[in-house]
Amino acid sequence: MFAFCRALKEEKFAARRAVLPVLQAEEDERFVKEWKKYLEYEAEAMKDVPGWKVGENLYNSGRWMPPATGELRPEVW
């Protein structure tokens, strides 16, 4: 009985590991599309500000940080 449960559990984890790269690729694709929309929005909103560079990092940490969850949601802005 325990061997069967363990085999079932291992199969479940193997299936998750197999699907995870596909899910990550879909999320990456969604992120890139939303980021492009955001940059277009930023360019339109800040077009009259002298010296503004679209997409330039405002914080000079030198590291790329992904936006917080929900930051690139079109229904928010």
From TrEMBL:
Pfam families: GRIM-19
Superkingdom of source: Eukaryota
Keyword Transmembrane helix among record annotations: yes
The keyword Transport is assigned to this record: yes
Bilayer topology: Single-pass membrane protein
Localization annotation: Mitochondrion inner membrane
Keywords: Electron transport, Membrane, Mitochondrion, Mitochondrion inner membrane, Respiratory chain, Transmembrane, Transmembrane helix, Transport
GO cellular component terms attached to this protein's record: mitochondrial inner membrane; respiratory chain complex I
Main location: mitochondrion
Family to which this protein belongs: Belongs to the complex I NDUFA13 subunit family.
Function: Complex I functions in the transfer of electrons from NADH to the respiratory chain. Accessory subunit of the mitochondrial membrane respiratory chain NADH dehydrogenase (Complex I), that is believed not to be involved in catalysis.
Name of this chain's protein: NADH dehydrogenase [ubiquinone] 1 alpha subcomplex subunit 13
